[in-house]
Amino acid sequence: RVAYVNGRYVPHAEACVHVEDRGYQFADGVYEVCEVLDGRLVDERRHMDRLERSLKELRIREPMSRAALGHVLRETVRRNRVRDGMVYLQITRGVARRDHPFPKGDVAPAVVVTARSIDRRKGGKVAEQGIAVITVPDNRWERVDIKTVSLLPNVLARQAAEEAGAAEAWFVDRDGCVTEGSSTNAWIVDIDGRLITRPADRGILRGITRTVVVELARREGLELVERPFTVEEAKRAREAFVTSATKLVMPVVRIDDAVIGNGKPGSIAGRLRDLFHGAAEIAS
Ligand code: PMP
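Above: the input record for the complex with 4'-deoxy-4'-aminopyridoxal-5'-phosphate. Below: its predicted structure, written as tokens.
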């Protein structure tokens, strides 16, 4: 395996960043995870749009052109011989003596890209069973709309899920409404078959998979309401599912101790999963 680190492709086992990288010291950086399907990037344009927005919000300079970055992503995928999997991109504010304010002068942002294969059949098998989620208080900062590498609350929530025998944790705001998962967006289907997901305001990350599923649902003539929903509502829902670039559309069959629907993945989630790649933008 190889990784791209600041202009070079190096063996993955030896890929290092500097001890004074601001990503390492302050989590002062952003990232993207893009699905790789048949060696091609899924929804690259949207991921690049979101990346540029994240960089702008944190006032980190764009390290290279979009075309150049796209080339690095593809080259990393190619050199790792990834057919199905994901490519990870991280950009930090760069290396400077540890001090909270932005470094003075022209410090180059640090860029790292890795890629790895994911067994698609495994994901498919999990989706046939559905996953369990737990709920935890949303104790994150107010700018979760920025895709930063500052993910400690997400890490702790996900670990709590693992220890509870669940695959994901849903964050819950002070009003008892679900915001999103630790690395996924959250959806339910109500008794009338309406899709419900929280609006992509500042309470959540605007997932690329979420955006594509919103478009797909409209195209399929499914009724969709973008509004917050409570944990109680979710526990009474007909279906529930999560979306992300790596989990795609993943049915949820248990929330805390509540069984969702008949305890099997719902038909709408299944349909959206089956149709997902037909709605995504996949470069040729
Ligand atoms: N919310 C959070 C907090 C996430 O980390 C992710 C995955 N990066 C998502 C939602 C889903 O986003 P996407 O569909 O772009 O993978």
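Notes for the reader.
Residues 2-118 form a domain with the D-amino Acid Aminotransferase; Chain A, domain 1 fold (CATH 3.30.470.10).
The first helix runs from residue 22 to 26.
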